[in-house]
Amino acid sequence: MEKKTRVRKIHMTARERNDRIFAGALLLPSVLITVIFILVPVVDSVLKSFLDYKVKNIISGVPGTWNHFANYIKLFNSGKLGMAIVHTLIFVVGVVVAQFLLGMALALILNSNVRFTRFIRSIMMAPWVVPTIISGLIWMWMYQPQYGFLKFLIQQVTGGMVTDFAMLNNPATAMLGIAIAALWKQIPLTTLLLLSGLANVSEDLLEAATIDGANSVGRFFHITIPSIMSVIKITVSMSIIENFKQFPLFWTMTGGGPDNATTTLAILSYREAFVSNNLGSGAAVTTIWMLLMIVVVFVYNRIFKNVEMD
Amino acid sequence: MKKRTLAVVLAMAMVFGTACSGGGGQTSTEAPATEAAKDTEAAKTETEAAAETEAEAPVAADTEITEPVTIKFANYALLEAGYDVYWNQLLDEFAAANPNISVELVTAPYGEIVNTVVNMAGGGDKVDLMYGELDWIPGLVEAGLAAPVADILSSELMSDIYPNILDACSIDGIAYGVPMYVSPFLLYYNKDLFEKAGLDPEAPPTTYDEMLEMAPKLAALTTDDGNKVYAFGLTTASVPVSGACLTSSVHNFGGTVLDADGNLAIDDGFREAVAMWKKLYEEGYNPENSKLKDLRNLFALGQLAMYYDQSWGYNGVSSINEDAQNYIASAPPLKGGSGDGASVLQAGTLMVMDNGDDLRKAATAKLVDYIMSEEKISQYFEEVTPAYPSRQSMEDLDVVKNSSILAGAAGSVGNVKPVTFIPTLSDLNLEICTLAQAVTLSGKDVDTAIAEFETAAENVINQ
Q1: Taking burial as the number of CB atoms within 10 A of a residue's CB, which of A89, A172, B31, B163 is the most buried?
Q2: What is the pLDDT of residues A179-188, one digit of tens each?
Q3: Do residue B220 and residue B157 come from a single domain?
């Protein structure tokens, strides 16, 4: 076998060799960009998480000093890390599940023969094109407890019985308030992706199932879902990543409050690195954040490992 | 073969494009400068080289700028309505009067300007001057950015600043900022609402107890369109300036947050203040979890009877409701417990950074002198917002003496306690906000919330 391979290598034609060189040349830009802009910063950040490294180190050019895991020890002792991890996971799981269910429901409606489908499809994308910070500001005004639209609406609906409604000011509901804003912004893309998947489900298969007596629920779970599994996998993984790194909505709408109720890993990392100017500590949060994300994505991929990506 | 060549060319173009994309500078706008100044870049480089050889020589602030020079000025206010017109006009006038000095503006929103300046410096591009909050000084000093102002600014200007104000900008006796104007957290109140509630509009409360006596009458009011009126506003939302305002409230009660060495120093005054925050919330007097701008909105809409703000908060109020000048009045901060109503000093502050170039330092000093001139400060107080001058020579400024808005709080600027500057002051201020939210929104008892605050604050202080 080894001999055969060697013989093949020796007899590689000039065309094959050129093809390989050509393929390498085409890959080179992507590899370079990945290494320079992703791999190097990640490694640099992990290294800095073990150092006493502050803004003055950057400005003065003095390298950070090894601080015997002090950044990690401080984070674990502060009690904020565990809380931030829990808040992050609650937000990610809640938003991803709600986003998928609502996105799928909307996609199914738009894929049916309802009227004004084209019009709805066009305006549906509006929230997605609004910058995230602007979305945060819009929703802040909607939630504003004294003169916000939601307060007005609830006051009208309840006939003036509920006059005090402040979703972002209540530690029990603040996370929900941000999740609603995130869903408003992200559902359009999810719907669009799922809709593209639904459009490719085989009509023949659906028709055959109908002839065989399958009802609509059966057709949905046994034909539609399996047919668009690869689209679902991509859509959900995008949603997981998007919400794991969600920062602008939290920072704009609550700043991590009230009473730390919306302090996620993103908020904690920002406060450590850019409010306290302790870049080493911020990098430690980021490292833990990255590890957590790797674990989640690994588990997710294990669950969907049998899905063919075509 | 043609396709391959095309593919390789496109791939190379992509790499080249990516490499070039890193070469952009910071987002900035440039103030008008003379064409001559732009054309003599080479002369400027020579001047810079000459200046480097004499980097240690003291700067003559009154040096005439005969060579073209560019300085960078970071100023968030240029992006804020109500302030932008004044600043743009000032810079235009300065450019006209100093054709050799070109001012390159670095702008970012209020919450991002510090990071913008720090990031630029990290890339080797320091600004020369920055306008911002007094509380930004410790972070900028710790970062190695803010320079001692006495090394760069004119001695005439330095000797004219009130010593206690200069002390408030100092770390270890060295001043790192020059306030354009100052203010304590004073009490703004609505005279119309006082009258409507049967209270004397010329007799605002002087103590927290008096305020609590008046509050039920004010809280019983509604606006013409039926909205609730809040009696007393104290900002508690998670932004650093709210923490500064809450610290001021602690000082009202004679309490402290940090001792002179920067250690946590929680005392009875501190506890009394926290208990007051809780009471204000439980009685429904304080709009919950509000930022200063929320309180300004409510005050402008006639939904808030009293609130704590910096004097320049008036600008925010009047930009929403021009009629506010007819009902707004000020009073000194309230006295609580055994406290004497002391506050903390707030200031629109100019901070300088040393680029090692004497010409840039001299140009920066000239710009600061211009900004701090009586003419410009008077104009600022008249056209933008009322405040108290930081220069002794402006003690009798007509615009301040005749300000009906500031009259009630006259003298309160002399009753301020210095804030101990620690590098993580902004983060500590956020922890104070969390404490306020814990006793109000989360309903925790005062002792439990303070215990949690101590743990979090120690962690922040000992970074």
Answers
A1: B31
A2: 999 999 999 9
A3: no
